[in-house]
């Protein structure tokens, strides 16, 4: 079984509840042994004129095909009311696949590792909490090294 790193994000409604519910639904699929980082708050990335996000990294283990992982994560988003209106827009829940073991995949619908992972402090901070020594399969740097080198100027604030 390969480590599966996901990132949850929410900036609408009861953000904490959306993250908790997404974690519970994903745990029902991948197993109750999943790990989760603390919650982190940051200003929106991309489209900045929107509410701040709460983010949380998750670690599960799976042997499912990557395309099936995408189906599962999108299903959880839909169940929780995610509406895709604009890229990087406000949302009740976002579930991103960050890393899946050493998988390198690029299709029209899915890229693993996540193509912006190394450019986003709000992704790296919670990921480093779970796996500081995990090595990016393309960049060949640890998550801690990527965070130290991250050019993203947005402050990421540890919430709990």
From TrEMBL:
Cleavable signal peptide: none
EC number: 2.7.6.3
Keyword ATP-binding recorded: yes
PROSITE patterns reported in the protein's UniProt record: HPPK
Keywords: ATP-binding, Folate biosynthesis, Kinase, Nucleotide-binding, Transferase
Pathway the protein contributes to: Cofactor biosynthesis; tetrahydrofolate biosynthesis; 2-amino-4-hydroxy-6-hydroxymethyl-7,8-dihydropteridine diphosphate from 7,8-dihydroneopterin triphosphate: step 4/4
Superkingdom, taxonomy of origin: Bacteria
Occurrences of domain 7,8-dihydro-6-hydroxymethylpterin-pyrophosphokinase (ranges): 87-98
InterPro entries per UniProt: Hppk (IPR000550), Hppk_sf (IPR035907)
NCBIfam families hit by this protein: folK (TIGR01498)
Family statement: Belongs to the HPPK family.
Entry function: Catalyzes the transfer of pyrophosphate from adenosine triphosphate (ATP) to 6-hydroxymethyl-7,8-dihydropterin, an enzymatic step in folate biosynthesis pathway.
Protein name: 2-amino-4-hydroxy-6-hydroxymethyldihydropteridine pyrophosphokinase
Organism (species): Nibribacter koreensis
Taxonomic lineage: Bacteria, Pseudomonadati, Bacteroidota, Cytophagia, Cytophagales
């Amino acid at each position: 079984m390969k480590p599966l790193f996901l990132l949850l994000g929410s900036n609408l409604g009861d953000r904490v509840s959306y993250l908790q519910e997404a974690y519970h639904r994903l745990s029902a699929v991948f197993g109750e042994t999943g790990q989760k980082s603390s919650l982190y708050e940051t200003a929106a990335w991309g489209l900045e004129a929107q509410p701040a996000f709460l983010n949380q990294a998750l670690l599960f283990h799976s042997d499912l095909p990557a395309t099936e992982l995408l189906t599962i994560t999108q299903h959880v988003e839909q169940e929780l009311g995610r509406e895709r209106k604009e890229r990087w827009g406000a949302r009740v829940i976002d579930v991103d696949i960050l890393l899946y073991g050493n998988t390198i995949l690029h299709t029209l619908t899915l890229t693993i590792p996540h193509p912006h992972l190394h450019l986003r402090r709000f992704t790296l901070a919670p990921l480093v909490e779970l796996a500081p020594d995990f090595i990016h399969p393309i960049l060949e740097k640890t998550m801690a090294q990527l965070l130290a080198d991250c050019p993203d100027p947005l402050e990421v604030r540890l919430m709990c």
